[in-house]
Design brief:
Layout: H1 11-20, H2 27-32, E1 37-44, E2 49-56, E3 59-66, H3 75-78, E4 82-86, H4 88-95, H5 102-110, E5 114-117, H6 119-122, H7 124-130
Parallel strand pairs: 1-4
Antiparallel strand pairs: 1-2, 2-3, 4-5
Length: about 130
């Protein structure tokens, strides 16, 4: 097995990869993000793995990162630009593609069920779901 071959993401990161990585075949996505370098961390607090979404000049992939100990997912370690942290069921609701109201998201933030850092960078996820 070659060193360059990436490990397949496991757990929550694997589910995110199945949703996100097909964008690599979308020409419009490649064109729109050809100059973008961005890392967004999705941390399922009740799972074993976090998903680091990496957009690198028109290519997108997901890396699985063990979220325990907590230092594994620190900004200094991974270099992420945006973070969303919640329980797995909240992520499943967000990733399902169903309309989620701004009010319900705001309520989850105010009740500390959803944590967002780098909101401007996290908003890129909305663009991704348009494809």
């Amino acid at each position: 097995m070659s060193e360059e071959k990436k490990k397949k993401p496991r757990g929550f990161a694997g589910a995110v990869a199945k949703q996100i990585e097909p964008l690599n075949q979308n020409e419009k996505f490649k064109e729109d993000f050809k100059d973008t370098e961005l890392k967004i961390l999705l941390n399922a607090k009740d799972g074993k793995y976090a998903a680091l979404i990496v957009i690198d000049k028109g290519k997108i992939y997901v890396e699985g990162v063990k979220n325990k100990p907590k230092k594994n997912i620190k900004k200094k370690v991974l270099g992420w630009d945006g973070l969303i942290e919640a329980k797995t069921d909240t992520f499943l609701l967000l990733l399902s593609g169903e309309e989620v109201s701004t009010l319900s998201l705001l309520w989850k933030i105010l009740t500390f069920k959803l944590k967002i850092r780098g909101a401007k960078n996290v908003m890129v996820l909305n663009k991704l779901f348009e494809y």
